[in-house]
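Hi V.,

You were right to ask for the full record rather than a summary. Here it is.
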Amino acid sequence: MSEEPDYSTCSVCGTTVQDRPVTWSLQVGARGPRRQSEWLCERCTRDNLRSIEGKLDEAWW
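Predicted structure:
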């Protein structure tokens, strides 16, 4: 019995990888009635860093 490979897709650029690198980031936001998790690839994480930091609670800083 073989398991299906686990694929991850960047929610910004659509890059798909089979084994998600540790350099990808997880973005969690409240959209609609439930929270939604989105993965961002390394490039999109770097490109959107200011936006990500701006969403952190003040207590984080």
